[in-house]
Amino acid sequence: MIYVAGAGLSGLSAAVYLAAKGVPVQVMEAAPGAGGRCRSWFDEQLGITIDNGNHLILSGNSSAYKYLASIGAERNFAGPAEAEFAFHEIPSGKAWTVRPNEGLLPWWIFDRHRRVPDTQARDYVSFVPLIGSGARTAAALRKRDDVLWRRMLRPVLLATLNSEPEEAAPQLIAAILLGTLGRGGRACRPRIALPNLSAAFIDPALRVISGHGGTVHFGKRLLRLGVGHGKISELEFLERRQPLERGDAVILAVPAWAAKSLVPGIAAPTDHRAIVSTHFAVAPPQRAAVMTGIIDGTAEWIFCFPDRISVTISNADRLLDIDRNEIAKLCWEDVVRSLDIAPDMPPWQVIKERRATFAATPEQEKNRSGPVTAWPNLFVAGDWTATGLPATIEGAIRSGRRAARLARRHHDA
Ligand SMILES: Cc1cc2nc3c(=O)[nH]c(=O)nc-3n(C[C@H](O)[C@H](O)[C@H](O)COP(=O)(O)OP(=O)(O)OC[C@H]3O[C@@H](n4cnc5c(N)ncnc54)[C@H](O)[C@@H]3O)c2cc1C
């Protein structure tokens, strides 16, 4: 048996992989439902199902797409046929759409209808030496105050890192730029989950796991890992203990803070950043882009779903103590301006995810563990493990598969 603690995306991707290979698997989740930081629920106040926060994936997220294929959910997504990113600058009222061309050769930077207004092709070229230049990247970015940085690169990096790009680990910035624009527009088509995150990423996975004979238990918090004879010998839950047999393995797919309390001495990030999301129960205008980047507003990205408009603000610790009414009002002002809709404020909901992701700083990057632990039958997964990516769906899913492969090898040995 392989026991997976945590039914977030990393745990589910591990369990789906194992169940599909015919390996007996049991998932133990502390919460009453699955999804972790990528989940949905019916909001009584709004009368619609909302997500804990807007989640974007890109067409080039290969681990995410492999996972979606394995649960039959690739079609549960919306987005433009080609890579395009709409922006709206609040102070000037200017709007534009960045359209990277499909192939690897980035000729779009020479086309003023495809690039950011008031930029030149040489501005883009001047960024290339910064990518992958290690420690120099953050320092070089810190000095930049140009239009391209402000109108495209900073908002994209801020959203992906959930940390100020100027303070971020250079290797994470390089991984983002090389994995997206560096692979051409074909890898950068934005995709959002429809009708919501649970329907797209979570519920189909639960069906696949149980369809292959696996089980998922909710309200089962792993409290302690018992050690005996140099390996994990027992799992302790509130109301029972689960002894492990020969060949059994454990995948810990819990957030960094939970891993640290269960595995003394494990390296894991300790500093986290918030994301604040505001959902408005109103249908967007038909012409609205699936997502719009907001420059110099309170809102940072506006997402349009058939039954709601949702605003994301990253690296949002500064908003944690701000009144929810105030946040909703400021976000709605930006929505009205950028989508050009009637100003009457619809019913809204503000969700503050305090520990949305680990801080993507060089210090926290050093704290990320690989999947292998000091115990031969214990493996770790999660967006905070050493994936080479910031805390993302792609990283979480990749880490789950990686831990599952190792656990299976242990199980089959
Ligand atoms: C608001 C928000 C917006 C985001 N936007 C994006 C985005 O646009 N694109 C993107 O790629 N990523 C985004 N992310 C990041 C993405 O959601 C995460 O990287 C991913 O969901 C993490 O999955 P995980 O399995 O590593 O961790 P989690 O989702 O945290 O799952 C861990 C699970 O373990 C459970 N657990 C904890 N302790 C125990 C225990 N002791 N025993 C059993 N179970 C336990 C938890 O309840 C949880 O279900 C966003 C995150 C947030 C919060």
For the termini, the CA-CA separation is: 13 Å
Number of individual domains: 3
- Give the number of helices: 11
The CATH topology of the largest domain turns out to be FAD/NAD(P)-binding domain
Ions, cofactors and other ligands present here are: flavin-adenine dinucleotide
Q: Could you say what the CATH architecture of the largest domain is?
A: 3-Layer(bba) Sandwich
Query: How would you characterize the largest beta sheet?
Result: 7 strands, mixed
The CATH superfamily of the largest domain is known as FAD/NAD(P)-binding domain
Mean pLDDT: 95
Shape descriptor reads: globular
> What is the top-level CATH class of the largest domain?
Alpha Beta
Number of strands: 20
Low-confidence blocks of residues: none
Query: Could you say which structural class the secondary elements and strand pairing correspond to?
Result: alpha/beta
Sheet-strand content, in percent, reads 15-25%
Q: Which radius of gyration do the C-alpha atoms yield?
A: 22 Å
**Helix residue percentage:** 25-40%
